[in-house]
Amino acid sequence: MKKGEFSLPFLFIVLMIGALIGSVLGEVIASVIPATAPVLTKGIQASLNTTTLDLYFLQFPLGFVIKFNLMSVLGIAATFYILKKL
Predict the structure, then answer these.
(1) pLDDT band at 1 (very low <50, low <70, confident <90, very high)
(2) Does any domain span residue 39?
(3) Rounded to an integer, what distance in angstroms lies between the CA atom of residue 24 and that of residue 69?
C-alpha cells in the first residue's frame, strides 16, 4: 500500500470515529458554554425505518439513524486532513 492509500472500510471507520469525537466535543463545549449549544448541537438527522428480520428461530430489528451537526462535520474534516498528511 502506497503512502496516503487506505482501504475503504478503514476510511469509513476512521471518519466515523472523527464524527463521534467531533460530536462529543460539541456536547462538552455546549455544556461548558451554554450559549454555543444551538450552533454546535443542532443537526440534520437521516434514518432508515426500522424493519424486523424474522428467521423463524431468530427475530431482530434492523435500522439506523445518522445525525450530523457542525462539530461532527468538523471532526470528519479534521480526520480527513490528518489522513491526507499520513
Answers:
(1) low
(2) yes
(3) 11
